[in-house]
C-alpha cells in the first residue's frame, strides 16, 4: 500500500497549485472572485491577521520547552468540553506561515501539531497536549466561484456559514451540511462529515474534486480524487496534514427556503418502516427520536424530510428575494450554568413537549434553511448547558439487516434513562472511500449524554460491544472515550491508514490527543 | 490520554504498595488504564502488587523508588516519563507514599519523627515537583496527592504525622494553583480514618472509610476535575466546624 502513496500527488514547495477546473470560471462570465489568490511564498495580504499570528508563529520557532513557552499555552477542548489539554495555539495568516508552523511542529521535543477549524468536533480530535494546535480559520479566502458550473475553490478555513452567505445569493448551496454551519471546509473534509442528504448525496468528500495538503515535510501537495492520499485525508482527522484549499462541487438551488414534510411516528418500528419505504423520495431526511420514551412508544420520533423549495412554491411576497439568507440568533448561553440542568425529569418533559408539538402529519411546510438544517446554531454556545463536566456525543452506524441491534441499543438507552434530548436517527446511503470515513450503508443513531452521568463510561463500552458485534462503528469526530482495541474492528482500513502515515509522516508531526488515545 | 470521563490510560503510582493506591489502580484498570508503573522500595510486596494488577490485564512495571532519596527522584522518575514516548505519556500520577509513625514513641525519638516528616513532606515535595514539571511539558495529566484530614487541624494524638500532611496539603494546593491553565490537574485527597495495614492496630475513628471508597472518590474527582476530595464527603462539613473550635475546647476533645 505504502508504495502508492505518492501516486497522483505532486509535491511542490510552498505554492498551492492553481486549480485547472476552476480556472475557466473567470471566462465564464458569471464568475465571482472572493479575492485575489495570495502567493504563499511572498508576504500575504492579510496584514491585520499577520501581526498577531506572526508573533505566535514566531514563538513556535523558539525552544520547545521552558517556562516562557508554558505561559503561552491555552487549555483546549472539543465541543463536548471534556478532557481539556494545554497546547500552543498558532494561527497562521498565510500559507507561508502555515508552512513555517508545520516545520516548527516537527522539531525535536515539539510534540507535533494538529489543524483545528471551528472546534465543533465533540471529542479530542483537534487537541494536541503539549504541542501546537494550528487554528486554520485565518486562512479563509474564497478564491473562485464558478457560478456557471457550480465549482468552488476556497481556503480550508472558510466556514460553511460564510459559504452560505456568499453562495446562496448566486443560487448555489453547499453539497453537504451537518447540523451546524459553523464548521470549516477543512474540518468537513477531515471528519468526512455527512448531512441529512447522505442517503442520496453521500458524505462531504464525494463532492470534493481535489485539495491542497500541507504535509509533514512542509511541502504542499495537490491531492486528486481517487488517490490513496485523498482517501486517507477524507475522514483522516487532520492526521495526514493541514488542508489548505479545496475545490468543491456545489448544489444549485432556486430559493433559500425548504419545503418540509413532518410526520410523527408511534414507535421505532414505525419509524424504520417509513424511512425504508419513502426516504428515496426526499433529498433530506432525518428523525429526531425520543430516547426517554418507554413501553409501547419506545423510539417514538418526529420525522422531518424535505428539499429546497422551488421558486414557484413561494408566496408572491417571498419571491421578491427568494435567496435571502438571514439566520437569527439568540443571546449567548451563559458561561456558568449549574450541573444537572439536564436531568431525566427536565429532558423527559422537553422530549414529550417536542414530540407533542410536532404535527402528526404535515406536508409542504416552508421553513427557513437555518431552521431546517441548523436549529441549534440559533443558540450560541449551547454546549454550555451541560455544565462543567461537559457532555459526550455517541454516534454509531450499523448496517442494513442489523435493525435488531439498533432496537436493542434504543431499548437499553431508554431503560438506562439517559437524559438525551438531541438524539437523531438517519438512514445512510452508500459509503465513500475514505479509509477512516464514518458513514456506511445502514442506520446511524447519535445521542448526547451529560458526561457526569454515573456509570456512563461503562455503559457506552457495552454499547460499543453491541455495535462491533453487528459490524458497525462509532464516529471519530464525536469520540472522546472509545476503547483503542476496538478501533481496528470498526475501521478495516486502519492498517492502510497507519502505513500511509508512517511513510508520509514518520516522526508524527501531525499528532492529536485523539491519535495518541487511539494509537491512530 | 485521558478519556472524556478523566480516566487515564497510563498511571504512575508513587508508593506502589499503598492499599489506597492499589484500590485506585484496580478501579482504573477496570475502565481504561493499560499501563501502570508501581514505584516503591523493591520488596516482595511490590512485586506481588504488580503481579496482581497484571492479572487484571494491565502492563505493569515496577520502579525502584525511595521517597527519602530525593537526589535520585529526577533520574528515577525522569526515566518513567521518558519511557512513555510519543502516545505513551503518563496520564496520571498518584502520590500515595507516606508513613504514619508512632506518635508516642516518636515524641521521644526526634530522628524517627524527622523520618516521618521527610517521607511525607520533603520526599513528596521533591517527587511532586519532578512529576509536575514532566506533566506540564506534556500539557496534560492529573497529579493526585493523598493528604489526610489529620493535616487539617493538628491533634494531640498524631501531630507529627498531621503536621507532615499539613505541609503536603498546603504544597499540593499551591502547586495546583501554579499549574492552573497548563492542562495539569492537581487533586488533593483528604481521607479520614482508612481501614488498612497502616491503621491495623488502631481504634477506628468516626466516619472511618475504606481504600475502595477512597478509590471511588478519586475516580469521581477525575471526571469533574475536582481540586479537593474529602472521603467521606461529610468530613468536609465536620472539619469546617472543627476548624473553628477554640483551642482549650479542642484540646479536651477525645480525638
UniProtKB/TrEMBL annotation, chain A:
Q: Where is the composition biased (Low complexity)?
A: 1-10, 22-43, 51-70
The record's section on SUPFAM superfamilies has:
FAD-binding/transporter-associated domain-like (SSF56176)
Q: Where is this region: Disordered?
A: 1-70
A GO molecular-function annotation: D-arabinono-1,4-lactone oxidase activity
Locate the FAD-binding PCMH-type domain: which residues?
A: 82-253
Any single Pfam family the record assigns to this protein = FAD_binding_4
Entry's Gene Ontology cellular component terms: membrane
Keywords linked to the UniProt accession: Oxidoreductase
Q: Which residues cross the membrane?
A: none
Q: What is this protein called?
A: Oxidoreductase
Q: Which species? A: Streptomyces sulfonofaciens
UniProtKB/TrEMBL annotation, chain B:
Q: Which Pfam families match?
A: adh_short
InterPro entries according to UniProt? NAD(P)-bd_dom_sf, Sc_DH/Rdtase_CS, SDR_fam
> Where does the UniProt annotation place the signal sequence?
none
| Superkingdom as given in the UniProt entry | Bacteria
Tell me which UniProt keywords the record has, alphabetically. Answer: Oxidoreductase
Molecular function in Gene Ontology: oxidoreductase activity
Q: Which family does it belong to?
A: Belongs to the short-chain dehydrogenases/reductases (SDR) family.
- Record's protein name: Short-chain dehydrogenase
Please name the taxonomic classification of the source: Bacteria, Bacillati, Actinomycetota, Actinomycetes, Kitasatosporales
Amino acid at each position: 500500500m505504502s508504495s502508492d502513496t505518492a501516486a497522483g500527488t505532486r509535491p511542490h514547495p510552498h505554492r498551492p497549485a492553481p486549480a485547472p477546473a476552476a480556472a475557466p470560471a473567470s471566462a465564464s462570465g458569471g464568475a465571482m472572485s472572493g479575492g485575489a489568490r495570495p502567493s504563499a511564498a511572498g508576504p500575504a495580504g492579510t496584514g491585520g491577521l499577520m501581526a498577531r499570528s506572526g508573533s505566535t508563529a514566531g514563538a513556535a520557532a523558539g525552544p520547545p520547552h521552558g517556562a516562557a513557552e508554558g505561559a503561552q499555552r491555552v487549555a483546549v477542548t472539543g465541543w463536548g468540553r471534556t478532557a481539556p489539554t494545554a497546547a500552543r495555539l498558532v494561527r497562521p495568516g498565510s500559507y507561508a506561515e502555515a508552512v513555517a508552523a508545520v516545520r516548527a511542529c516537527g522539531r525535536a521535543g515539539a510534540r507535533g501539531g494538529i489543524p483545528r477549524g471551528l472546534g465543533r468536533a465533540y471529542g479530542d480530535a483537534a487537541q494536541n497536549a503539549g504541542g501546537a494546535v494550528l487554528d486554520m480559520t485565518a486562512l479563509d479566502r474564497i478564491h473562485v466561484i464558478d457560478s456557471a458550473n457550480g465549482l468552488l475553490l476556497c481556503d480550508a478555513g472558510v466556514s460553511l456559514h460564510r459559504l452560505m452567505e456568499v453562495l446562496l445569493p448566486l443560487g448555489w448551496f453547499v453539497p453537504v451540511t451537518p447540523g451546524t454551519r459553523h464548521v470549516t471546509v477543512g474540518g468537513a473534509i477531515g471528519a468526512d462529515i455527512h448531512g441529512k442528504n447522505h442517503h442520496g448525496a453521500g458524505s462531504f468528500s464525494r463532492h470534493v474534486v481535489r485539495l491542497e495538503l500541507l504535509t509533514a515535510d512542509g511541502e504542499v501537495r495537490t491531492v486528486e480524487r481517487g488517490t490513496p492520499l485523498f482517501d486517507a485525508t477524507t475522514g483522516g482527522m487532520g492526521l495526514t496534514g493541514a488542508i489548505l484549499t479545496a475545490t468543491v462541487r456545489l448544489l444549485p438551488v432556486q430559493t433559500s427556503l425548504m419545503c418540509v414534510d413532518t410526520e410523527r411516528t408511534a414507535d421505532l418500528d414505525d419509524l424504520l418502516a417509513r424511512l425504508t419505504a419513502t426516504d428515496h423520495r426526499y433529498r433530506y431526511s432525518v428523525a429526531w427520536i425520543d430516547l426517554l420514551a418507554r413501553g409501547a412508544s419506545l423510539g417514538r420520533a418526529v420525522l422531518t424530510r424535505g428539499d429546497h423549495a422551488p421558486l414557484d412554491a413561494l408566496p408572491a411576497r417571498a419571491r421578491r428575494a427568494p435567496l435571502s439568507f438571514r439566520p437569527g440568533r439568540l443571546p449567548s448561553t451563559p458561561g456558568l450554568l449549574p450541573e444537572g440542568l439536564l436531568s431525566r425529569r427536565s429532558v423527559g418533559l422537553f422530549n414529550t413537549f417536542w414530540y407533542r408539538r410536532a404535527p402528526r402529519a404535515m406536508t409542504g411546510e416552508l421553513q427557513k434553511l437555518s431552521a431546517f438544517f441548523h436549529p441549534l446554531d440559533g443558540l450560541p454556545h449551547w454546549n454550555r448547558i451541560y455544565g462543567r463536566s461537559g457532555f459526550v456525543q455517541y454516534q454509531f452506524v450499523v448496517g442494513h439487516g442489523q435493525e435488531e441491534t439498533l432496537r436493542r441499543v434504543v431499548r437499553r438507552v431508554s431503560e438506562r434513562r439517559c437524559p438525551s434530548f438531541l438524539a437523531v436517527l438517519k438512514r445512510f446511503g452508500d459509503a465513500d472511500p475514505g479509509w477512516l470515513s464514518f458513514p456506511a450503508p445502514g442506520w446511524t443513531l447519535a445521542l448526547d449524554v451529560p458526561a457526569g452521568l454515573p456509570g456512563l463510561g461503562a455503559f457506552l463500552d457495552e454499547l460499543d460491544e453491541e455495535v462491533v458485534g453487528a459490524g458497525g462503528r462509532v464516529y471519530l469526530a464525536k469520540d472522546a472515550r472509545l476503547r483503542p482495541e476496538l478501533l481496528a474492528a470498526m475501521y478495516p482500513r486502519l492498517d492502510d491508514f497507519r502505513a500511509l502515515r508512517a511513510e508520509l509522516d514518520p516522526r508524527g508531526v501531525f499528532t492529536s490527543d485523539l491519535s495518541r488515545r487511539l494509537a491512530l | 490520554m485521558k478519556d472524556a470521563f478523566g480516566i487515564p490510560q497510563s498511571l504512575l503510582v508513587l508508593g506502589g504498595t499503598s492499599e489506597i493506591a492499589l484500590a485506585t489502580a484496580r478501579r482504573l484498570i477496570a475502565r481504561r488504564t493499560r499501563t501502570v508503573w508501581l514505584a516503591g522500595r523493591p520488596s516482595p510486596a511490590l512485586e506481588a502488587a504488580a503481579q496482581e494488577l497484571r492479572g487484571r490485564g494491565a502492563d505493569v512495571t515496577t520502579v525502584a523508588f525511595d521517597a527519602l532519596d530525593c537526589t535520585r527522584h529526577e533520574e528515577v522518575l525522569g526515566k518513567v516519563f521518558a519511557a512513555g514516548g510519543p502516545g505513551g505519556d503518563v496520564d496520571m500520577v498518584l502520590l500515595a507514599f507516606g508513613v504514619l509513625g508512632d506518635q508516642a514513641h516518636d515524641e521521644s525519638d526526634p530522628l524517627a519523627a524527622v523520618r516521618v516528616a521527610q517521607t511525607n513532606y520533603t520526599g513528596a515535595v521533591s517527587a511532586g515537583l519532578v512529576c509536575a514539571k514532566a506533566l506540564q511539558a506534556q500539557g496534560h495529566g492529573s497529579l493526585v496527592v493523598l493528604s489526610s484530614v489529620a493535616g487539617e487541624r493538628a491533634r494531640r494524638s498524631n501531630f507529627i504525622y498531621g503536621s507532615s500532611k499539613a505541609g503536603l496539603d498546603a504544597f499540593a494546593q499551591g502547586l495546583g494553583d501554579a499549574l492552573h491553565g497548563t492542562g495539569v490537574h492537581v487533586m488533593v485527597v483528604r481521607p479520614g480514618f482508612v481501614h488498612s495495614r497502616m491503621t491495623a492496630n488502631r481504634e477506628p475513628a468516626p466516619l472511618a472509610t475504606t481504600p475502595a471508597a477512597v478509590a471511588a472518590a478519586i475516580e469521581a474527582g477525575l471526571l469533574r476535575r475536582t481540586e479537593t476530595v474529602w472521603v467521606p464527603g461529610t468530613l468536609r462539613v465536620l472539619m469546617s466546624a472543627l476548624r473553628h473550635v477554640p483551642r482549650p475546647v479542642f484540646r479536651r476533645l477525645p480525638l
